[in-house]
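By convention, the token line describes the chain's fold. To illustrate:
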Amino acid sequence: MQPRLTRLILSLIMTLGILIALEIASSALLPAFGWRESRLAFNVVIILFMAFKISTPLLPWFVMILQLVHAGFSVEGWALGTLVGIFVSLIASYLKEILQFSTAIMTIITVQIFQIIWYITTLTIISLKLGHFNNFGMMFWNVLPGTFLLSLVSPLLFNLLNRVWPVEMQVSRSTGMEL
């Protein structure tokens, strides 16, 4: 196996471990503090990180694997999450050159905007499947507090994931071009 592929797989395994730990912690701690309405979707923030920081054609597969693991802790379907995750990842990949994550406030704002895009897309698909948009506003209002909390912790999570997914530039000796 190539060293880069091995590194990608190891980073994915470590990311899955982080996701599982965060899912268990949010499943156990949030209800203990009285927050029963919704859960924190750490999978969304992890997928956003990967969309912004990782350039690999394997990204859709990584999104699907993360959604499958997340589905074990949620009633949310993995297929819808994968579809929306890939859609949002495409948008992020087009915009990642102009986005800066140099400050915590920019990370918070960017993650909040993309979470809103994620949930609007998800709720639109759900409403289309239901055949009406009667509950769209209420469903969006229910996920909004969690998005704010996730946006606030996103700089810490991005910092942790930066250690798991080091961005390395490989330059070919013969051509001098980035690989």
Q: What stands out?
A: Residues 3-164 form one domain. DSSP finds six helices and no strands in the chain.
